[in-house]
Amino acid sequence: MTEPGASPEDPWVKASPVDDEDSDYHQEAYKESYKDRRRRAHTQAEQKRRDAIKRGYDDLQTIVPTCQQQDFSIGSQKLSKAIVLQKTIDYIQFLHKEKKKQEEEVSTLRKDVTALKIMKVNYEQIVKAHQDNPHEGEDQVSDQVKFNVFQGIMDSLFQSFNASISVASFQELSACVFSWIEEHCKPQTLREIVIGVLHQLKNQLY
DNA sequence: CCCACAGACATAAGTCTATT
DNA sequence: AATAGACTTATGTCTGTGGG
């Protein structure tokens, strides 16, 4: 739609007052020209603003993957602005959820790394002790059996630890750890675990 | 303080397009 | 062809800002 009588080439054509001696008319003509000039500039500015908005929607449609899915039965139909906005909102919510999931995964993996590092240090100490005293206790059981005993005990402890511990906050973690130690690390309980593991291994071996 | 200006928003009217 | 819905365009109004 074009403005009636508007000429895009000469937007400021009415900007100067007309050459007339009549001051009232002169004034009126000047006012009118200012009004026209103002209207023209405003129309241009408004066009610019609408272009910017349109560009924004186009960019959204390009960036948001769910806006790019096309129904091939219809062809590459342009989505309405309302749909582009809704799909953008949905996509941002999806990204937020994904980010949260990945952060949780990273946290879990960090804990695994810490545990593995501790275990590595412990094993290195054991290996070093063996190297320092290679002949101590020739009648000792094999490394495999020792590992099985260790593994059985640690598995049992880990199961009770995993069932008792929540890591939502440090306070909660700390409270859970203390309660777990009280409940599952009593001498009597540990004794039962060790005996149970040894029995189990004995049955497997013989 | 007044005026000019720019930008944002609202609205009416026109245009385009898919559907019935 | 009629119609509905989405979109565009021009214009009016309001508000904030900066210069004289």
Automatic annotation (TrEMBL):
One of its GO terms (molecular function) is RNA polymerase II cis-regulatory region sequence-specific DNA binding. Residues 92-119 form a coiled coil. One of its GO terms (biological process) is positive regulation of transcription by RNA polymerase II. Residues 24-35, 43-53 have a biased composition (Basic and acidic residues). It is found in: Cytoplasm; Nucleus. Residues 37-95 form the BHLH domain. The keyword Magnesium does not apply. InterPro entries: bHLH_dom, HLH_DNA-bd_sf, Max-like/E-box_TFs. It comes from the Eukaryota. SMART domains: HLH. Efficient DNA binding requires dimerization with another bHLH protein. Binds DNA as a heterodimer with MAD1, MAD4, MNT, WBSCR14 and MLXIP. Can also bind DNA as a homodimer. PANTHER family: BASIC HELIX-LOOP-HELIX ZIP TRANSCRIPTION FACTOR (PTHR15741), MAX-LIKE PROTEIN X (PTHR15741:SF25). This is Max-like protein X. The lineage of its organism: Eukaryota, Metazoa, Chordata, Craniata, Vertebrata.
